[in-house]
Design goal:
It is a single chain. The chain is of the alpha/beta class. It has a single domain, classed as TIM Barrel. It contains twelve helices and eight strands. It has an eight-stranded parallel beta sheet with strand order 1-8-7-6-5-4-3-2. Helix 8 links the parallel strand 7 and strand 8.
């Protein structure tokens, strides 16, 4: 099946000023840099976009800005990360008129739903819109796991077109293919499993750290599409220490610091997050600066 959503759909940060106010202009500049690198979609207001730290109106401002900045060149999605089914449905209805191409839906935040509750939630939220949507499965962070067989049950929802799989186990890719075939686009959502997942057969990558290295990130992805595995391994080995910044509880702070070091943004985050300091900052900066120093030639 030819899927309309495939390729690199980076999770975009919400750029802020030091006073924690939105910096929409800086976010738009980053959107432009990502599109120029060759990405095929954008995910705004995901976890990396600090969705849960934004007010409702701020989320809509970010989405509107991204749609304007993209100018129809790539589909723009919004993350949906609300604490209740009602709030998630309301957010989707409010955003439908903003020009979005679709949504990436996370399970309800805070409450740990059981399988019946989780399935009911996704059916209700995805059924609120006719726009396509991606299910974000991240049992490590959100403690709700949508298994391949559960995903197959949701296959009756024709506007559910993709899954962002972040279970942290590359075996899940094969399990998904064995159960759902090519019914959905399968996106890997764990940066440092990209190459393993690509070998097993995925359609896309919701990239994290790569938003600070968009050209190198896109180059690695394209190597996997062409089956140039020797060169892909070289790039992946260079990239792996950086990609691991996406798998830490402070991934937002780490990746924003990475963007600051590469000149694509600032490190400011919304409290209760704080920019990292002390030994932790020096350790992360050492990883970032070594990655910049040893950056491979791409193209």
């Amino acid at each position: 099946m030819a899927h309309s959503w495939q390729g690199v759909f980076p999770a975009v940060t919400t750029q802020m000023r030091e006073d924690q106010s939105l910096d929409l202009e800086a976010t738009a500049r980053h959107v432009e840099a990502l599109i120029e690198s060759g990405v095929t979609g954008l995910v705004m207001c995901g976890s990396l976009g600090e969705n849960q730290s934004l007010d409702a109106d701020e989320k809509r401002q970010v989405v509107e800005m991204a749609v304007r900045a993209a100018r129809g060149r790539v589909p723009v999605l919004s993350g949906v990360a609300e604490t209740s089914t009602r709030a998630a449905c309301r957010y989707i209805k409010d955003c439908e008129s903003l020009g979005l191409a679709g949504f990436m839906v996370m399970p309800a935040m805070i409450y740990k739903a059981d399988p019946r509750e989780a399935m009911t939630f996704f059916r209700a939220v995805g059924g609120t819109t006719k726009l396509p949507w991606m299910l974000y499965n991240n049992p490590i962070s959100y403690h709700v796991d949508i298994t391949p067989h559960q995903l197959a049950e949701l296959g009756e929802m024709m506007n559910l077109v993709a899954i962002k799989e972040s279970a942290g186990d590359p075996r899940r890719i094969t399990e998904l293919r064995n159960v759902v075939g090519d019914r959905f686009s399968i996106f890997v959502g764990v940066d440092d499993l990209l190459l393993e997942a690509a070998i097993l057969g995925i359609d896309g990558w919701v990239a994290g750290t790569g938003i600070a290295f968009p050209r190198e990130n896109q180059y690695l992805w394209e190597l996997t599409r062409r089956g140039e595995w020797d060169r892909a391994r070289e790039i992946y080995r260079w990239f792996t220490p950086l990609l691991k910044l996406d798998t830490h509880v402070k991934f937002v702070q780490y990746i924003k610091l990475c963007m600051q070091e590469t000149g694509l943004g600032k490190e400011w985050v919304r409290a209760p997050r704080l920019p990292i300091d002390g030994e932790e900052r020096e350790r992360v900066l050492a990883i970032i600066r070594d990655g910049i120093k040893t950056k491979p030639h791409v193209g």
